[in-house]
Amino acid sequence: MNRNEVKNCLLCNAPLNSQMDWKRLFFNRFPKVICQECENQFEWCLHEQDEEVVSLYYYNEAMQDYLHRYKFMHDVLLSKVFREEIYYNLKNRKEMIVPIPMHPEKLKERTFSHVDELLKEARIPYVHLLEKITTETQGGKTREERMNTPQIFKLKKTVQVEGKEILLVDDIYTTGTTIRHAKRVLIEGGAKSVKAFTLIKSGFYK
């Protein structure tokens, strides 16, 4: 990998300090792609974890801006921003890593799968077991509407999940509707356990 792949912060465009320190070299860590000032704006989510869903960051103003640029302005380079944190949180997980999928029509519109790209940049192997069966998104719905959403996933054809331990991965956890629907399909298909990991934890903000 070219360790000088990014010369300027992907978020504010400030020049990055490209000097290689021995710790980064020894542990083969990922090259930095954002400056320290931008990094400090993200708020770690460390004290609200449970065994079922683990999230790395809160949905603050800086994260809202990041997510808007990444998902809705289609800036796929921003998939690099949190790759090191994702890698170190998932590299030793024993479960099968399963991204929350996009509907094919939404994938055409966005041109890339944002969750898949986060995992690719973090060098985390994954497998798709689910298909999304509706183009509806949770954004814009009230909390009550989200909680009453009909099933939005199905198992892919020929997929066998019986006895599998699965870790679902998504970008943001808000009411938990998406994770609940995915978990239900997998458990009904025979999965032994289903937990979840998300980059962001949000209060109900829509």
Automatic annotation (TrEMBL):
Q: Which residues form a coiled coil?
A: none
Cite a single Pfam family from the UniProt record.
Pribosyltran
Q: Which InterPro entries match?
A: ComF/GntX_DNA_util-trans, PRTase-like, PRTase_dom
Q: Where is the Phosphoribosyltransferase domain?
A: 117-201
Transmembrane stretches, start-end: none
Q: Which family does it belong to?
A: Belongs to the ComF/GntX family.
Query: Which protein, by its recorded name, is this?
Result: Competence protein ComFC
Per the UniProt entry, what species is this protein from, by scientific name?
Ureibacillus thermosphaericus
